[in-house]
Write the structure tokens for this entry.
Amino acid sequence: MISKQVMTSEDAFKALHAAQQEALAHQWAVSIAVCDDGGHLLGFVRMPGANIASATISQSKAATAAQMKRETKGIEEMINGGRFAFLSAPKLEGLLEGGVPVLVNGQCVGAVGVSGVKPGEDAQIAKAAADAVTGGMT
């Protein structure tokens, strides 16, 4: 048997709170999704003024980051670099920057996806959320 750490609802709330604080500090209206390592939603917030579509996009980014165990920025860059065949990868939809895995001792325990502002800003918020859960340790 292999033991592994898992994200709890408390971890998800901590991540959501940190993400909201980062977004509010910059007056960014975004949607924030937190999922477990399988990409299943643990927590979600759509801040006032956030685009309605950002709700679905943030959840897709979080699920993709968790399932791929890496930031979605790398996936977007790979596709933009010409690996268009990856667009046919089954059940992966959040192929845009803004999804960040939550890594504990090198293991993915979940992910955060953010949508609503510029790609780098989405990622900045998601990283703040992930760091709140891990204390900045990966």
